[in-house]
Amino acid sequence: MAKPVTLCQQCHSALFDGHAYPSHHRAHQQPRPPSAEFKYEALPYDRRSTRLLNLSCGSPENPEIECSLIVVNIESTESGRGLIRKEYEALSWCWGTAKPTSYINIRSNGRIYSKRVQPDLLAALKALRHPQQDRYLWIDAICVDQANVREKNLQLEMNPLIYDQAKSVCVWLGEGDVASSMAIKFIQEEVLQLQNFDELCDSRDAGKKWSALLDFMQRPWFSRRWVVHEIALARSAILYCGEDMITWKDFAIAVELLLEVETATHRLSEVMRKDPQFFQIPDWFDYVSALGASVLVEATGKIFRKTKFTGPDLGNQQLPYEHADRQPLLSLEYLVSSLAIFDTSAKHDTIYALLAIAKDTIPSVSETYPRANLPVEVNRFPIQRAFNAQGLLLDRTKSALEGFTRRKRYTVAYESSYVDACKTFVQFCIQQSDPTRALDIICRPWAAEDKDNPAETNFIYENRTPRPKETIPLPSWIPQVTGAPYSFFTHPGSHSVRLRRKNADTLVGLPNAFQRNYNAAETREVDHKSLRFKKRLKHNMHFSMYVKGFVLDVVDHVFAASQGGAIPQEWIDAAGWEDVDRMDPPDEFWRTLVADRGCDGRNPPVYYSRACKESFLKGGLPSGSVSTSDLINNERNSIVAQFCRRVQAVIWNRSLIKTKSMNMGMASKNVKRGDLVCILYGCSVPVILRQCEEMKTLEELAQEREEDFINTLKEVQLRWKKRYERSRRARITRAWRLLVLLFGSIRSLREDPGFKFYVARKYGIKWRKIVRERLLEREHRREITPRTSESEGSEGRHVASSLVLTDNSFTGDPKTSPQSLSQTSRSIPLPQNARFFPTKEDAQRFFQEEVAKTWDMGFNTWLNRSPCDGSNQYYYQFIGEAYIHEKMDGEAMEYQNTQGIWTQVFELR
């Protein structure tokens, strides 16, 4: 049984048995901090650089932490990866939600300043402090000015390089206790001794040690999403837990051995049942493969492929791949979807924490970051603006060829709202994925929960991310992690939280290129012409996604949802299975229970039919439901247990449904009668959509058209502006390179007034503005001379007649049939009673005013037109994916062709 847990009254750290090591108590013993608060100095803007923490040596009894920050440059290399010549180590720790109540002393410019840090970070610094020599560390919370959004974005872009160049990664798991010491000693002295491993798995005396290892694997650090990025990029790693330590390689081997034994034979759960302290929990290790530590060990082993070894031999600290030459193997969509169990302090990090290790992304700095923190001369001098972002001259050729490469630039923009970041991710996945299954991303729960995170109220996060003005809730097509299969919560018989199943597994599965579970839309690809995203900020704020598909069926009957994986009696009655003892289960019923697939995602085994009948005979059906959990834990039948585990993965918190066409299926417990069963082009499974109750009014439709028109104009303007900026920066870069070759020195040109005048005159915006204003003044000063001769008068009347207009020319009636916008831009006919104007400018002015009136009238008519059909007068809520029997492998497309079902565009909110 797990030991009772008490909390420290000062920092709320877990103290098992009410005791902890003396280092925990020393973390609170520090004098009053100095009065001056530490303030960061801006990093050099003309080159890539970062800060390192120089941790001064000291004895363990000294409660004060003294350190200093140094700036190191990142030199350019032929490979373009960069090089940090200073030897250092990187710290990986859990930010958590604790407030920064502790202090460290930072020496700067001959004075000592104080900086607030979290108690856990202070304890880590004391544990890592060397008694005789200084230690150089890179710590994100200290080496990066978290209040500077631009600097944070730039440092995030360099995070792969920082962890790759570090000598080692020091992982701080928190303060140690009796259980953690037992787990580390158990791994080093018993688990890694493979010659005795089988006897260890069957030993009744090892139950307490296996329980300590399980508690060790559930420490908060293993549930942090950033650790995937930090461990995957590390040369070597060491886990520190209080005063104990263990190499990452030893820990990873122990976890893999645990998973191999438990998933194959469940021998360890049997050992725990034999121990009187743990017999009340039969499935102690049942979901150990879904723990963060297990997923992390598995993920770090397959994120990269080792190509060759060029580094030194690091002994037991060497990770299973080489850091210098490796090839990423997993896409961003796969990483975000498969690592949903990991938490983040900032919602944006759900995506940004995995950019550096994905095979199809390269983290890039946002082009819209605030420039308030930049020096004045950078904003004024265009050459340095093109130079400062990377510290290297921009290579426009790489940007031009980016469309033909596998890895795309992914913009890191903490200043954007979270819903915009999610939309960008969904759009990126649709563009990068297989077109026949690109919309599967809207069926996988991955987004952080749409509520205020306590960690974001921490002082570190208060200033680093500007709060967006609009607060649009996450739409239904961005599934949240609340629908994930597993979660941590308290289990009966245990005083600590444990990982348990909460929902069924997704039907679409992970985006594996070599296997797909279903193929409902057959070869129909996502329609990119219809696919679009619209943000509405007026009245009822929402974010819409438009996708193309068709309505396959309508939900007619909804039966009770499965609770805890049990099969209700109501389902058996709906399937028409009248005599369980004598009749075999209906083929449609047992195949719906397992979604017509086995545990490996392929066709179900033939014996599933017999296992289904055996389960209903011994699963307690007379009590009102069949308990699959009791069958797994008590039946002692591996075939029945395998069948029940597959049933749980399909029906947990799902409802049995029947459609109007009498098709049986499985859908979310939130499904209702009247919901639509739809096929979306580019989605591998059917989905459930709920149509809004009320139609959109004509005013709402007109307002949406107006917003779309304005947004289109803004997008076109922004596109041309970016194109102009890219062209201008390319010209500046070419001029810079030429001048560097001529003069040989870059720094000597910065303060040269002649060079500044040359660049400003040739490429500056201010110079072109002055020239344009002078040309306009010259045009206004030019006078038009009157024509006196008859020939000149006739010529003047001819010119004026092409510009004259009268009010009778515009007779458009807004109540007539709607006209397109292109019709309003046609030439306006001239009446016979056209009047003349004294000057050409007056005629042009009158012409422009009348065209504007006609265009406005036509635009209003176009906005207020009635829709041709009622399809765009409704919007839909995405309820979730669904299994419809005999409609999962292309049968739905054949049904559409035979029944003549029309396609339509669905607006999902």
Overview of this protein structure:
The strands form seven sheets. Strands 7-6-4-3-8-5-9-10-11 form a nine-stranded mixed sheet, with helices on both faces. Strands 18, 19, 22, 23, 24, 25, 26, 27 and 28 form a nine-stranded antiparallel sheet that branches. It has a two-stranded antiparallel sheet with strand order 1-2. Among the domains are: 8-167, no CATH class; 564-651, no CATH class; 721-863, no CATH class. Helix 5 crosses helix 7 and helix 15 (382-388) crosses helix 24 (698-743). Mean pLDDT is 77; it is low at 1-5, 15-22, 309-314, 316-324, 368-401, 454-469, 783-828 and 830-834. With 909 residues, the chain is of the alpha+beta class.
* Main sheet makeup: 9 strands, mixed
Oligomer: single chain
- Provide the β-strand percentage band: 15-25%
The total of helices stands at 30
Low-confidence stretches: 1-5, 15-22, 309-314, 316-324, 368-401, 454-469, 783-828, 830-834
Strand order of the largest sheet: 7-6-4-3-8-5-9-10-11
What is the rounded Rg? 34 Å
Helix/sheet category = alpha+beta
Would you tell me the overall average pLDDT? 77
Distance between the amino and carboxyl termini: 47 Å
The count of DSSP E runs of length 2 or more, i.e. the number of strands, is 28
- State the helical fraction: 25-40%
Shape annotation: flat
Domain C2H2-type: 8-28
Protein name: C2H2-type domain-containing protein
Region (Disordered): 807-826
InterPro entries: HET, HetReg/Transcr_Mod, Znf_C2H2_type
